[in-house]
Design goal:
- The structure is a homodimer.
- By secondary structure, chain A is of the alpha/beta class.
- Chain A folds into two domains: 270 residues, Aldolase class I (TIM Barrel); 46 residues, no CATH class.
- In chain A, 40% of the residues lie in helices and 14% in strands.
- Chain A has twelve helices and ten strands.
- In chain A, the strands form two sheets. The first copy, chain A, has an eight-stranded parallel β-barrel with strand order 3-4-5-6-7-8-9-10, surrounded by five helices. In chain A, strands 1-2 form a two-stranded antiparallel ribbon.
- In chain A, strand 9, helix 7 and strand 10 form a beta-alpha-beta unit.
- Chain A starts with a strand and ends in a 16-residue tail after the last helix.
- Chains A and B meet through helix 7, helix 8, helix 9, helix 10 and helix 12 of A and helix 7, helix 8, helix 9, helix 10 and helix 12 of B.
Chain lengths: 328, 328
């Protein structure tokens, strides 16, 4: 799929976003299988995990892909020839300058800064630090369904003027955007970003993760995020296999993705949960963070979607998530 | 959601389409729970099953909703006041005139004729028989992704001129339509149907069942089909809860739908399978009938999506579905 003259670039986030489900405790074998499939398929970018400071996150409480250390990434790559650019995501305030070597000493070549709009100045500073170290930098603006256009336009202009990022990504963290919202946001991003491209990261709470990604590309987004079988926290993401099937770009090969699903993801899906599940649909339709649905899914009331909906929509019950109290 | 002056009408097909999974062996309790939820939610139409001739389908081999006899429907309704119109679907050549009493002697008020385009003359005759008996008649054109526009336009004109049906429905049986296909088909239907409305029935093979339904409504469809949690053969359908949430029509109440999911569908989902499952994604992307994927899901190779894709896309292996032979 080419929109105008420029080719759409695909970012696989399977391990990074999937790790939000299991605290990044994926085995090396799983990560290597994902990497090999993504690399063989010709995907442009792969986000292999988060990078975070071990001072802020005790390593004994998280799997290796919370940190994605350079040496660990090298163990995964082994002797494989890279077709895909590898990178990591960072959160504002969860990483320090010394956590990054200069890019020419690292197997990584890009870093995406995840930020809320309120922290955009911090995101700009962090993105600039990353650019100075020689990495391609990106900014992902999370929880986009909760911000107003006026503040968003200001933030985008700041990024456009004060950074060298390659793209700024619309992140539908709550999975609550419809087609018209996506078109509006991509157009708002485009009109405030003269020198940067627009990306899109969907979630599947309303079964629109894939559909909204196609809408974003049609509206002019040039980067899009996807994960294998949609793996990701809560309802998950735009499935990579659907995106490749729709894009019909001859540079992509879908078969390695089917192979890693058959060989690895069928088992993963028995161990951890993601996808269209009613409590996540309900947080999506209500434009709420999925955390209350995640809590519900860990409780004995995990399947009680009607009770959950009533709790979330009954004002006096907002503190009583996950069925911890009755009487609502 | 109102498109222009006319209101969109919703058809629940949970029992009818869901019955394709389990040969319509739903208990009376399940069907009554679905009926009560749909009726309380203010859904416009509910297709409670198929109507078929017992001469052609041995009753001992099918559940009751293959036949949906008038007395059986009355048992489900009981003393409930009807907000929702009840009806059935019929297949060409699988029902006889004597299988329908005059509408004023039946609890049903509509009948939908499911047809392939090649049988459109038969569908017209059957729809006219149904209209003459006093029912609202509809025609659903199945496997729409396999027909050419020229033949389709001829068929639509025939329906427009020679029947009294209320709507003609675009049925994406293979779940392979994208947005542009949906817009094209709805426009083709509209331009060839001067006196009838257009309907849309999506399938979820590409996670577009709901998104395509919204596209169809935007393009001018005025009837749309949905099922609770998307229950239906293979990848299933547009989920009713998503549609109600998006439509925001005050006449609909979503809570009874959440209640029947919590009370009935969570258990059903443990007994029978539907939804976004890779073999159905693959038949959707290849514009194939889901029957080969259904066969695969009953075999020991049920999760081998990569092998399945290779078989379907390797010419000499087209007869070797469901892993019955190796060597492809």
């Amino acid at each position: 799929m080419k929109m105008g003259k420029e080719e759409v670039l695909v970012v696989d986030c399977s391990v990074r976003d999937g790790g939000l489900i299991n605290k990044w405790y994926f085995s090396d074998e799983v990560v290597r299988n994902v990497f090999k499939a993504v690399n063989s398929s010709g995907i442009d970018y792969m986000e292999i995990g988060y990078r975070a400071s071990e001072k802020m996150f005790p390593p004994e409480e998280y799997g290796p892909w919370r940190f994605s250390k350079d040496d660990k990434v090298r163990e995964i790559i082994g002797e494989t020839t890279l077709n895909t650019k590898l990178g990591v995501m960072v959160d504002i305030g969860r990483v320090e300058p010394e956590d990054f070597l200069p890019a020419d000493e690292s197997p990584l070549c890009f870093v995406r800064v995840a930020t809320y709009l309120k922290d955009i100045e911090k995101a700009v500073a962090l993105a600039n630090l990353i650019s100075e170290k020689g990495y391609e930098a990106f900014i992902n603006i999370m929880a986009i369904s909760t911000v107003n256009d006026f503040d968003l336009a200001k933030g985008l202009k700041l990024i456009d003027e004060e950074t060298d990022v390659k793209a700024v990504t619309v992140v539908d963290s709550f999975g609550s955007l419809y087609e018209d919202n996506v078109v509006h946001l991509v157009e708002l991003f485009k009109s405030n970003l003269n020198k940067k491209k627009v990306g899109f990261h969907g979630h599947n709470n309303l079964q629109l993760g894939f559909a909204n990604t196609l809408v974003a590309l049609k509206a002019g987004a040039l980067f899009c995020d996807a994960t294998i079988t949609g793996i990701g926290r809560g309802a998950g993401n735009c499935p990579l296999e659907l995106l490749l099937s729709a894009m019909k770009n001859p540079k992509f090969n879908i078969e390695p993705i089917f192979q890693v699903i058959q060989g690895t993801f069928n088992d993963l899906a028995k161990q951890i949960e993601w996808g269209y599940i009613l409590p996540y649909m309900i947080t999506g339709m209500l434009n709420e963070h999925p955390r209350v649905a995640i809590a519900l899914r860990s409780s004995p009331q995990r399947d009680n979607c009607a009770d959950f909906y009533r709790q979330l929509t009954t004002p006096e019950c907002v503190e009583d998530m996950a069925g911890k109290k009755s009487g609502c």
